[in-house]
Amino acid sequence: MAYARAERVLPGFGLSLGFTLAYLSLIVLIPLSAVFIKSAGMGWQAFFDAATSPRVLASYRLSFGASLLAAAINVVFGLILAWSLVRYTFPGRKLVDALIDLPFALPTAVAGIALTAIYARNGWVGQLLEPMGIRVAFTPLGILVALTFIGLPFIVRTVQPIIEDLDAEFEEAAASLGANRLQTFRRVVFPALLPALLTGFALAFARAVGEYGSVIFIAGNIPFVSEITPLMIITKLEQYDYEGATAVASVMLIVSFALLLVINGLQAWTARRTGRTV
């Protein structure tokens, strides 16, 4: 018996796949390949020297370390914020929900200038922290603040739909069986949210690693102290050291891709283990 072929709104698989690969190649693969091809022309010794100089290594530690820490901080506070927005009703809730997307809409340079003005020694917050010996602007702590600011929406917007779909009856059932709040969160809520949290963490980390505009003003840009890797790339380009810039960029791409691969693998493993998808 012959069955009628199902009609699809979009074109067939071959045409869709071809368009996808062509678009992906033009936008992502070819530009990234150009970075590695340019680096390959240096020779291994020149590449190694450019990518592992002490000043560059210090920028790696700061950029990747601050990005990982900022993403981890956002996981905690982003989860609390998303939970509050979904499960509670309070005055100004709509305004808070709208403000979360502000880092998406705000130009990064404007965000950097605003954060610097607030956390500088004579700023609204900086003048309160200064007597306690806490300096934010023009220090690595300022970089952490900026990266946390731009990464928060990724966590909230990734976790928020999962919390909305999470039926409160499961929590009530756990409580009726004698579970306390910590046990309910650890055994009922957290497993359901973990894949989404890992996804948000990966997105926030990826955004933070390559962030430039919001960090450059508050960082201070002191070599070996508060100089981020994207700034090193810009500095080398301004000095017409294109090969050195591509060498540093290649290392950033490789390390970022490896970390994201690990995070995505952990997310997939968690989703299979819990029987949930994001």
Would you write up a description of this structure?
The protein has 278 residues and is an all-alpha fold. The protein folds into two domains: 11-40; 51-274, MetI-like fold, CATH 1.10.3720.10. It is 76% helix and 0% strand. It has helices at 13-40, 44-51, 54-87, 93-99, 102-105, 108-119, 126-129, 140-165, 168-176, 181-209, 213-219, 229-238, 242-274. Helix 9 runs antiparallel to helix 10. The protein starts with 12 loop residues before the first helix and ends with a helix. The model has no long low-confidence stretch (mean pLDDT 86).
User: Radius of gyration over alpha carbons?
Assistant: 23 Å
| Proportion of strand residues | under 5%
CATH homologous superfamily annotation of the largest domain: MetI-like
CATH topology assignment of the largest domain: MetI-like fold
Biggest beta sheet attributes: none
Under the CATH scheme, the architecture of the largest domain is: Orthogonal Bundle
* Average pLDDT: 86
The assembly state of the depicted protein chains is single chain
Secondary structure tally: strands: 0
CATH class division of the largest domain: Mainly Alpha
List low-confidence stretches.
none
Summarize the amount of helix as a percent range. over 70%
